[in-house]
Amino acid sequence: MRYQFYYYTKFTEKLLDFLTETRIKHQVYDNGYVKFSLYSSQPDHQNLLDTLTSVYHCPKPLVDCDYTAKERNEAEFLWLTPCKYCIEITNKEDAYQYACAYEHTPTHTQRVHHKKQIGTFQIAKVPNLNTKTAFFAPDTGSNELFADHRIKALAEEHHLQGLTFLPLLLKNGQESPDIFQLTSPHVFGLSAVVRGYGETSDFCPLCGKEALVAASAYQMHLDRSQLNPTLDLMVSDSFWGEGITYSTQIISQRFYKLLQQEKLTGSLRIDPIVLHD
Q1: Global confidence as pTM
Q2: Contact by Cβ (8 Å): 162, 186
Q3: What is the rounded distance in angstroms from the CA atom of residue 188 to the CA atom of residue 115?
Q4: How many CB atoms lie within 10 A of CB 274?
Q5: CA 81, CA 265: separation in Å to the nearest integer?
Q6: Please, which residues have CB within 8 angstroms of residue 183's CB and are 6 or more apart in sequence?
């Protein structure tokens, strides 16, 4: 694993000259911005980062983990995150139970620290299913996972373990035959996370419940003894994030290989997980 330092910033001719001279691949846009990345695997990356900040006054880059195909293909479990935020849930007030309400200043908007699903979701419409994207997320960015009929068929054909496909209601109140909520009854808790790899604790000021906030460049580390190696999907309890916490989904290497084989990894972020004995 290496770190990627991603820049998207306004350019000057001097900055473009520097990027060309140092052979940093970059893309220039008509709006006056330039996009480029540095990687921690570059021997001189720290000097380049310092120069971009001190000489060319570039803003701090976004830092993320960059994995090789080998790392993904050798991981026993992988963290699956849908990046297609397009599912509009139209019955949030009925489908969720909220707890620990507070007022968000300065507008005094009421918000909550915790929510728990208690009902079936109703959605505004079914997304386009004629692409390589088979997993979806709510348009609010929360971390419920939705999957289409191709994933359900794949799970049934290959007898994938730990997957539960819940119905979604359409506008007319009928269940959709094409898209489902994907979850698992197999839940791992906060104690499964091995600490000290870029996560910090956050506590609800009302009930004291602990949550974990992951750094932008974070690789999940889990205790192997708290995972079931026979399962193809497991979910965490809702303990990630600031404000309203969310759960995460992890998949087996077998599930990942099937997604690759069927070319259904579109709009997915898939990070290898480090297991500790």
Answers
A1: 0.91
A2: yes
A3: 18
A4: 17
A5: 11
A6: 145, 164, 166, 235
* Tokens 């708290």, residue located: 226
What is the tens place of the pLDDT at every residue in 124-173? Answer: 999 999 999 999 999 987 679 999 999 999 999 999 999 999 999 999 99
* Mean pLDDT, residues 50-69: 97
Cβ-Cβ contacts under 8 Å for 236 (sequence gap 6 or more): 187, 188, 189, 192, 247, 248, 249, 250
The full DSSP string for 179-194 is EEEEE-S-EE-GGGBP
Instruction: Kindly give, in sequence order, each residue whose CB lies less than 8 Å from that of residue 45, ignoring residues fewer than 6 positions away.
Output: 5, 38, 39
Whether residue 104 is predicted with pLDDT greater than 90 in this model: the reply is no
pLDDT tens for each residue of 196-237: 999 999 999 899 999 999 998 999 999 999 999 999 999 999
Are 245 and 92 in contact by the 8 Å Cβ rule? The answer is no
CB atoms within 10 A of CB 164: 14
